[in-house]
Amino acid sequence: MFYYTVNGNRYFNPYLAWYENFKSKSPITFHCNDLEYSAIDWTKEPAESLDVLMDRHAKHIRNKYERLIFFWSGGTDSQTVLNVFARNRIRIDEIVCLANKRLPWYPLRHIDWLKEHYWDKSTKITHFDLFDWKKRAEIIKNENWALEDFGDTRSFDLGGVDRQSYDYCVSNYSAHNWALLSGHEKPTLKFRNGTWWTALEDRPMRQIIGLTNIEPFFLDPVLHLKQSHLLANAMNQLPIIYKDGDDAEALTCNQLNINSLSNKKYFDYSTACGRHPELTIGVSVAQKTKIYQYGGIQIDPDKNVMQTDLYGANPTLVEKLKVRDQMAINYLKGLYNIVQDSGFRRYLNETALKVPDKIFYLKSNFSKFYNLGH
After folding, report:
1. Which H or E run contains 115?
2. Are 66 and 77 in contact (CB under 8 A)?
3. Residue 256 pLDDT
4. Which of 341, 348, 344, 333 is nearest to 303 (CA)?
5. CA 335 to CA 294: how far, in whole Å?
6. Using CA atoms in the order 270, 218, 259, 235, what is the torsion angle rounded to 10 degrees?
7. Which of 11, 43, 204, 292 could lock 17 by a disulfide, CB 3.0 to 4.6 Å apart?
8. Quick check: helix, strand or coil at residue 185?
9. Cα dihedral sign, 223-224-225-229
10. Peptide bond before 185: cis, by omega within 30 degrees of 0?
11. Among candidate residues 371, 367, 370, the one with its CA nearest the CA of residue 185
């Protein structure tokens, strides 16, 4: 469903795709529901409201699986999905989420709210600690972890649809027909030749690339089509003369510069896509900002692992490296292994990285673009 191809080879790990691109000079293609999306007439907006379409899709998902688990964070995407299932009284077998008393972007009060207010008291609610060291150790078993062919190479930070939640579902539901429901993802709109074109960006999708049993709610073809037109309609109402290459998300919330991303701008953008308000004002922006900040590790092959610049890195990683914890060392060694080929390191810096040697700041790849006709 979601993968990269380069030189006829399929990849889930974006760094493996970039390495093949480096060797073969063949372009990277990001695939996202190609067959389903190619069958749609993207110039025709569905007549039904987004609410009607979401209600219908929620019922379809529930009927499709014996066990349905939902990853919820309280941000705009997951809160919208939660509201849809609640208003239709559609059962969710288990809700999994992250929380920690030290994290305002994954606050414990969200768990308390969910337990108090969720309509179905038989739904199991499970939360994981974002700083749980044992959970990381189950994922980062040795220094080769970053070269495995799965999409999420941010395993240490365990954000979004994180590996510990996914592995938990595999362990507990593999005997059933099950799915982990996620809130992925808003469309990316680009202005070209006088009309808006829609696609999906790989950056927020990397958490689920290569994982099976994932149901990204908003990537249903009809929902993605409707969202794209809603966003294009909103953009066309703004008193702006667009030029080729303009990006709807960047224009509405300046997300090309994460430091300028504000709650108001993000709310306007997410509302235009049909999202409901987040549970706690500002939590969506906080989650995105922290994920970005935690990715600021500076890889320098001229230094050893213990000399790595960890400014802005996950505080647990910093603490564990001070006592030379082996798993923390393996985590950094894995990042260094990505650029063990000096030629590839130079190539990444010249072509793929937004900031030289900040290994997580990969530029985005986009899926196929579809013309919305307006």
Report:
1. helix 108-117
2. no
3. 37
4. 333
5. 14
6. -40
7. 11
8. coil
9. positive
10. yes
11. 367
Instruction: Decide: 99 and 159 in contact? Cβ < 8 Å.
Output: no
The string of DSSP letters for 119-156 reads: S-TTSEEEEEETT-HHHHHHH--STTGGGSS-S---TT
Closest CA to 45 of 56, 34, 53, 55: 53
Burial track 149-178 (b if 16+ CB lie within 10 A, e otherwise): ebbbbbbbbbbbbbbbbbebbeeebeeeeb
As given in the structure block, the two tokens for residue 113 are: 């709210």
Angle at the Cα of 181 from the Cα atoms of 285 and 371, rounded to 5 degrees? 70
The C-alpha atoms of residue 81 and residue 225 are separated, in whole angstroms, by 17
Other beta carbons within 10 angstroms of residue 76's beta carbon come to: 24
Alpha-carbon separation of residue 54 from 84, 183, 314 (angstroms): 7, 12, 36
Tokens representing 184 are: 């992925």
- For 205, the 3-state DSSP assignment is helix
Place of tokens 């894995």: 334
The whole-number mean pLDDT for each consecutive block of 10 residues of the chain, a chain of 374 residues, reads 96 96 98 97 98 98 98 95 98 92 82 95 91 76 89 64 84 97 94 94 89 96 98 91 84 51 80 94 83 82 86 83 91 93 96 93 94 97
3-state SS track over 323-374? CCCHHHHHHHHHHHHHCCCHHHHHHHHHHHECCCCECCCECCCECCCEECCC
Give the CB-side neighbour count of residue 136, counting CA atoms within 13 A.
Answer: 23
* Integer angstrom CA distances of residue 290 from 259, 279, 334: 11, 18, 21
- DSSP, residue by residue, 290-336: HHHHHT--B--TTS-GGG-B-TT--HHHHHHHHTT-HHHHHHHHHHH
pLDDT of residue 253: 59
pTM to 2 decimals?
0.93
pLDDT of residue 222: 98
